[in-house]
Amino acid sequence: MALYKKERFEIPKGTYRNKQRGKTYIYQYTDHFRSNEKGKAGHKSKVIGLLDEASGQLIPNDNYFELNSIEPRLFSEDVLSFGYTSLCNHVLADLGVVKLLKRHFPVDVANRLMACAMYCIGNETSAMNDIDDWMETAYLPYDLPLISSQGSSRLFQAVGKDVTAMHGFKRDWAEMAGKGQVVCYDVTSISSYSNLIVSVEYGYNRDHERLSQINLGMFCSESTKMPLGYVFYEGSVPDKTELPHILDLAKSMGLDDLKMMMDGGFCERACFSLLEKNTKSFTVGVPGYRALAIELAAIADKNELTLMEHMLSCKGEFGKFVPYELYGVRGRILVGFNQQMHTLETQTLSEKLTRLEKELSGLKRMPRGAKLARYGKYFTLSMDGENKLAWKRNYTAINEEARYAGFFFIFTNDPGMSAADILYFYRTKDADEKLFYQLKVYLEANRIRVHSDVAVEGKIFMLFIAQILRAKLSNDLRPLLDGHHLPLDKAMKKMANVRIKTTPEGFKLLKAPTKQQKEIYATFGHDLLKDGKRV
Predict the structure, then answer these.
(1) Three-class SS of residue 283?
(2) 3-state secondary structure of 364
(3) What does the alpha-carbon distance between residue 535 and residue 517 come to, in Å, rounded to a whole number?
(4) Residue range 146-197, pLDDT digits in tens
(5) Is 224 exposed, middle or buried (0-12, 13-18, 19+ CB in 10 A)?
(6) Distance (Å, rounded) from C-alpha 181 to C-alpha 165?
(7) Does the predicted TM-score (pTM) go above 0.85?
(8) β partners of residue 51
(9) Region for residue 105 given its phi and psi (left: phi exceeds 0; alpha: psi -120 to 50; beta: otherwise)
């Protein structure tokens, strides 16, 4: 007998309840009588549905409509995308994100934030223009009114105002996900056309755009590749200036046992002093243009460095430690050499020389100023007897530059890590850069698209949730997806194609899922067929 699970009615008079196996059945009397032998009163009844414990109303079956002479409502059959949103909800719940969001935010705000995060990943955008259309066709495991583009702005405004809740979530998440982890930190720029956001200022734009920006710094776990926390600050503030506040933020989020991996932008005396005082250990790249790097490359014996006992990886990378005190901090410098980079950099230098010679052939007089410095670095220039420009390659200078090709230098004050470990951890600092790439390319968050500082706070917080979700999906599915030569975005579209239809009895899978869809779902420890039946 059909149970109309989506319908609710007031319980009619002349009924009683009978609880069986955790469900409360509603019975309606159909007849009353007395026994002929003893005159005992009796009755007949039929079950007319179940009690909805939440609302106190009746979930009717066919008997309800028949006994009460009510015409059943015409049931509209909806088809909803199920696989993707159900998977995302499982992942967020298993990570503990759902619990933490509902600990710090009202339930409806937490649910809307998760819906926005799912929408961003599934549609590869951070623009909320079509979120209401998406919600009309997507299954969500909680009741939620449609979110419009304007509604999302109001949501970000409300979240951005609740600084205590945002900080509480970030603190608890970092403590849970970052415990005992090597932490990487990096910074990117997010541009904006808005004149209304105070934090948006002109500064060093890492995307080389001539726009004002905010700076977004992110903490990331080296091993799990998961984002642990973030900070954003005015676009004109240099990274090294913000470092004291970044370290204070890390402490406030519970990231006390810090092993920091930083890029060459933090290779400064003031930064080293702060990092030594506030971290367990730190590792910083030494930019190749620094006098120190040039000095180390000049005295390095490439033949000795490239002996097999100094090989760090099968990619032609070699290196060994040199004890060194840099900016008053005692530690070691990994002097490294990459054969592939040496070949690439010398090839690039050769192409540059050919290009400069082509430019010189078009000149009719001796270059001056900046142009002279540009050509004079590699060529000896003169005017010949016919008053034409002549040049000759300066191989002393060219060979000196080629000599440094392929070298790299990494300083660390961690005494326990091997050269191979240092190189591995420093290379995996790219995890932050990959998160930024995902943020800007796959979530189209290279523009802010809100117009107040408070809304910026709220939107970046939502995108942080989206980054956590996407990082987990990408990391855990990577072996499976690589085997199928399937990028994550296409895999999620395949999951979105697992659909359910509404029936009077509830939801049912529209069609049997494919083997690949079941494998993707099972990667996270859940059964797609069972979940489809339980909806």
Answers:
(1) strand
(2) coil
(3) 18
(4) 888 888 888 999 999 999 999 999 999 988 888 777 777 777 777 665 565 5
(5) middle
(6) 24
(7) no
(8) 58
(9) beta
